[in-house]
Known about the structure:
This protein is an alpha/beta fold and about 675 residues long. It contains 18 helices and 13 strands.
Amino acid sequence: PDGDRNGDRPILDEEGVTSQVEVIGSADLLKQVALKLNLAEREEFDAAARMSMLGNALVILGLKADPIEIPPEERVLEAFREKLNVYRVKNSRVIVVEFSSEDPKLAARVSDAVAEAYISLQSDAKMQSDTDATAWLEPEIAGLREKVKEAEGRVAAFRSQSGLLIGQNNSILATQQLAELSSELSRVRAARASAEAKAASIKNAIESGVAIDTVPDVLSSDLIQRLRERQVQLNADIADLSTTLLDAHPRIKALKSQRGGLERQIQSEARKVLQSVETEARTSRFREKELIARLNELKAESARAGDEQVELRALERDAASQRDLLESYLTRFREASSRKDGNYRPVDARIFSRATTPLEPYFPKKLPIAAASFVGTMLIMALIILAQELFSGRAMRRASVGTVEPVRDVEMTPAVARQPNPTETADVPVQKVRPVPVANDASVEPVRKPPMADRTPVEAEPDLPETPVAQDSGEDDAGEHAIEPVAEQLVASGATRAVVVSPEGDEAAASAVLLAREIADGGLRVLLLDLTQSGAASRPMLDGVRLPGITDLLASTAQFSDVIHGDLYSECHVIPNGTADSAQAMRAIERLPIIMDSLTTAYDLVIVECGPTDADGIRRIVNDDAKVLMSVLEPAEECILDTATSLHDAGHEDLILVTPIGHSMPTAPMPGRSVA
């Protein structure tokens, strides 16, 4: 019924369907459904009737609006919207209406009622649109008819007053005549030029004595053609008689006399043809002048008609627009009237699947809720237990590396370290090492090292002399500087960097290796950085294999992943001294602090073996969290006292002594341990 009027067709794109979803959920439509089904009489749609004790308390405290103050229809509408769900199926023009209720039959009835109300709303809107259209179009059509009549009358009156008569092809008569006269003038000019050319050609032929039969226009004359035929016959007769008669014979003379008369007659006819052609040329020139004069008159008349035609076209456009509008109004009026009289109400939607009464409630789902409650309860209990452990303080304590007795304070004097004479004094102040005692909390399970009997001793390992490093009240405190107590002290202090100085050379570098393995076996992430020139610290950890190390990293020939290797005998990681040129690496020594910061971030503890160096040699790698250790084999060596004095003067007052005496190196690599 709508014909080809695309403007009246519904917009069924994504936005159009979404707009219809909003129409279905509009307040007016929901109020109609609620009134039709008497939802206000049901308790589940009345918020005031379902007020709980908590809700009443919130209303009394002013934290919640009193539902009684809200009009009943608004309360029903609010509850209606909470239970209603209208959505569009993705990538389609299907709209789904869902409704939840305590009564399954009511849920189905409400869904169907909402869909039916939407269809009815669309139908009523179309009917109302047709009624409004007919009521508005009827007086408009009457007015347009008068306007069309007046516009067409103005066009006819102007055309008659201006003399703008229409010829063929809907063009003005003056313009059409001008075109025809122009064509005629062109034809006359062509004929005049042709006649003049013919006359000139004939005249030149006669005056120059050229044979007349060479001029086409002369030869085209019928008379001349007969004369030429007679002349040819006479020439033939003369030729025949000349074979038997002499030239003076009367017969031959008579024939020649006739031939001369024919030639004169041909010349006379040629001049007549010339005169005829010249007359034709003069006539063409005269006709041309007349046509030019008439053409000028038509040009003036056509220019005037063109100016008047502009106004005529404006009147015609006005009349045409009024006529088109009248025709469109008449078409719409007839369509709207037919739909109204026939009670035809087209809609843009239809219900293709009605709601069904649900067989089981969608909420609550007992099994999923029970499972979720169980998981939630377990999570809450785990959080409670975790909070109890955190607040108890036990979780913040570090696990011990081994079980040792609390270490007493040690005082070391330079005199005792240099020679056995106790009466000698020195200028170096007394240094104290204060390790933190191991926590004796029974709840913490200490990490124990395997017994010494399970370790395979390394041959040619130097023994620690019986001379004590320091004495307090005459007791031997050499055990304070063993690997286990020093490792426990580093862990308990929270240090992130340990710098080991070995004044006695490569043999003393074993302290750093043993210390790193001890702490790594305790569960911390430990890295040993070998800064010795000979690689004394990394060789026993890598079975003597030369691999890329710190010099390669400084020389920018390798990356971190290339220089970090795994200790073959423990969980410790190691960066060897490397394979690059030492001179090239030293030119980039300023990058060493940056490398140390990166390693400190990645590991719990970084142990640096520096070999026989002094305080100035370790200044780039010592920070506030660093602990400075000195590996000792023979305490009586003079280099030990000199290095201790240098470190003390540089501000390293908390110097820690460590000795590898009493520990052995493992001889069998860990199974499957090859890389970091």
